Sequence to fold (191 residues):
Amino acid sequence: MAVLKLDLAAIQGARDGLARQRDTERQAAVTLKQARVRLDELTQSGAHPREVSQQQATVAALRDSARETLLGTRAQIKGIADLSQRLLGRRDPAAMVSALGSQQPVMLLPVAVQTRYNDDASLLMVRIYPDAIHTFGHEPGLSEAEVAEGKRYWAERFASPQDADSAWTQIVRVYAPARSAWIVRSTTPVN
Fold:
């Protein structure tokens, strides 16, 4: 197995900088949220206009600061991408693939990964669930449950023709969008 000798110190340093920048970004978002909550409290309580005006100025300053922090994060990410391109730019892809170790998988499919922070940005939540990648199967026949769901869809559509979205949302919660479209098309009333 070929071994690639890559100096990853610059990328590691940039990644550490990005981690610090992300922490700063999260803290700015939390501070801005708290300031907005305080402004809402002042507005709803009928506070003195001068106090409300001062809080509005604080919110505006924090919003600008949060935008600047976000721009800094984007610059950090672009810097890492540029470093990666320079590091790997002139390397032969075949040599890079042959240098991959067999101890760890390169990619696990099919799964989808979603990440999100909780409300106070103190906890990163990760959700991993099966994903339908490269599934091209189509069963033209409908089950009894699918026929019933199709009838329910059309009954809701006829009951409130101006609101097509809620009936569609209900059927898509039960079946995938492509299958939902097939069910709706197959159960379309002829009257």
Q: What stands out?
A: The chain has a mean pLDDT of 85. The first strand starts at residue 111 and ends at 117. The CA atoms of residues 97 and 104 lie 13 Å apart. Helices lie at 9-45, 49-88, 93-98, 144-159, 164-174, 177-186.
